[in-house]
Protein 1
Amino acid sequence: MDFPDISFFINRRTIRRYRPEPLPEGLLEQLLEAAAHAPSTGNMQLYSVVVTTDPTEKKALAPYHFGQPQVEGAAAVLTFCADFHRFSRWCQERGATPCYDNLQSFMAATLDTIAFAQQFNTLAESAGLGVCWLGTTTYNAGEIASALRLPGLVVPLITLTVGYPADNGEDAGRLPVEAVTHYGRYRDYTTADIDRLYSEKESRDDSSRFVAENGKETLAQVFTDVRYPRGNNELFSEKFLGFLKSSGFIR
């Protein structure tokens, strides 16, 4: 059996620095059209994307992503949103009563949005563009929704910055695939498993630098105490839950 060439995926890099040039006219639209053929719950396509290219509008979004420079430096900032507003409007216009103000509906829209965003990510990179997936969108979802004028039942989930790469990015490394694969049932990890599976990640030069810079003893402590501490997790969880309620997804 001939296996497909997976080098494109193995060698992909997140790009945070971009050349100061616009994207060709129509390129984003072509990529988004192709991305819209991603898997979708019930073929409902429960997502929307807001494309931001104006420098002033990108600057307005940057603080909600904690000032990450790629927001203003990219040619385009794409905010992918879980969207049950459009589908509900269609139902209303066709004499049907929408019933999607609940957690299950939000999860369906979330899964659709992730699939759409990831398919766009891969298509953009295959077209020679650099992409950075921002994990900060849900931290300030309410503020981003206000800036983008999102109606109820529309929740920003994922932001991608896109442009022509100014460098090759960095290899962040990945856990060996055995770390994330279970056959038949979930097999819990022994101490020896954890030591083996995380050894390469912990031995990287950048990992050692993170530990030293933050005055910690282990890389895990950098994550639990500095990057994603309990206080921030609970604060942003409360903010996001509040926004989900105000958006109409959770009563």
Protein 2
Amino acid sequence: MSKKALLFLNGEVPTIIPIVENYGKVFCTDGAFHYLEKLNIQPDVIAGDFDSVNPNDFPDTIEIIQTPDQNDTDFAKTLAIIISKGFDAVDVFGASGQQQDHFIGNLNAAFRFKNQIKITFYDNYSTYFFADKKTTLTGYYDQTISLLPFPECKNIVTKGLKYPLYKEDLNLLSRIGTRNKADDDNIEIEFSEGDLIIFIINPDYPILLA
């Protein structure tokens, strides 16, 4: 079984859908099930508090996991479930759009779990993820690349970007690295301290999919 999971959240409905057969299991939060039905996708697992839907209405072939704890987000609780089932990577759709406070909450959850599982987000406009201290990107020539410190990142060195950084710091409150450009087909991004989210503004994002 693939060690990568697929997760749908209740944000903006994705317009490009990955090949679900490439994943070990398909998960969704209870609020996302309504659009998966329209897309003819049946998840393997649905997680949530089910305060607005009846879990008895779902097919018997779907595993239902109730997560009533209101002290955490549905995304964070579902990530914990995915990790407990042995997955080491997850592609996430529907994390942005709709209510933007949910989007910020989803980034916070990803930050908390980033050392336990590789999380890659996809929406209708971009791909984004927490970078390793050394990250290489291939196949994005002329695409917009944004570097977002979370909340700060130090000694950043980049190769292959139109506006390179050399041992420079970014801080969410003072200087961020949005709207850079891939000047080469191979991009290298390194840093020594902190955390960095890389956004690839690219409507043709499936190049990264499983």
Protein 3
Amino acid sequence: MSRPDLAADDLVVTRSGHRLLDGVAFALRPGELVGIVGPNGAGKSTLLRCLVGLVAPESGSIRIDGAPLAGLSGPERARRVGYLPQRFEPAWDVSVRDVVEIGAARAGGRADLAAAIEEGELAPILDRRWSQISGGERARALLASVIATRPPLLLADEPGASLDIGHRMALLERLRGYRADAGVAVVMHEVDLALRYCDRIVVLDRGRVALDAACRDAAIDPALDRVFGVRFHRIEIGEADGPVLALPR
């Protein structure tokens, strides 16, 4: 199967009279890692849930490789789009092995479980229960369960929210590495990490796209200051490391 693009146009989602998404357009291409950032309530998670088919927009379109997302069966969606949720709490205290195998089975077809387990360095904890592993180990297990079938698109909703900075950076490194074979989008709160690890960022504000640009361009765009309500200081620390944002005292 060829690697599809994901394209959404003019998405509108309203809940209890409040417009969560207001005419949002979004595109994800193979070979790029896109960070989706914005203040609380900006619509980041709602957008991701629309893109994986968990929320149906009231208007607008979502297409994968030109085909309407709504027309794809559940297993076909799972094969084309991997989804890493913000939280995962199993009803039973399953093992790490169970989590990886169940996640891979959702997409049907063939799954390279051995490769996913090796890449996630999960072999030492495969038979441990979910309650017995750390947040970083859980994040690695969830990612392995999603990438075992090698979906050509991977969407992650704040996968590092409960992790310390070291584990968040390690997770972003893995997502950045996976973009060699797929298009990856990740919802994040940390603008500085998004600029460091992503190729492009999309900034949402009150349900609308306030900025969609390559990270180097986005880092100097005044829209960042306006959306987050702070005055960022831009500090160049070298081409290899990328730009860094620092808040004034």
Protein 4
Amino acid sequence: AKGRAVINLLPLQPGEHVVKLLCTRDLEKNYVIMLTKNGIIKRTEGSDFVKIRSTGIRALTLREDEKDELVFCAVSTGNCSIIIATEHGQGIRFKEDEVRAMGRQAAGVIGIRLKGKDSVVGMEVISDSTKDLLFATAHGYGKRVKITDFRVAHRGGLGVRTIPTDARNGLVIGLAVVAEESHLLLIDTNGKIIRLSPHEIRTMGRQAKGVRLVRVDEGQTLAAVVAFEEEAG
């Protein structure tokens, strides 16, 4: 099925689109983390979003002179670490308390400093550092890396190499947190979905080039990677 147009459910403005759906259960006890394409991060208390008008409320002030846009949102407990990945293969990990809680009108602070035309393509809020990270690239390659291989740094740095972005791999399209019981969905630009198990991808070091995750059709590229765990029963 094609689904139902979101404009029928939400009063979106011209040029506006949905970035993320978040569960609001216990939101007032947690924080909402927001990240922009240019690496600006913001943390706001969840209680600020418990009561929202049908027309919406301001969550983040964008720096319009830099042509920035909101690309990722997540809920955190206040005691997590944050990993940010960029299109050109850089990544940074820092504790979330390095981003002070701000009001809804604030613009945020620098999460990762970008070089040239690089941009943010992924963010994960980490509560369990025993799991792994999977990085995926446009040409269908990727690799699995231990979270502990990314040392905790300070917010605002350039980060470290996540996966090479050479002619074989292409640019990074996203990352996902995976465990032994996880399942992976790889989605290409034509809407085709392939399901994988993390067992099929061995854990590698940060400098490794990675392996083929999926063979993409000619003219297509990988668009997204999603990890999920099936609930028992």
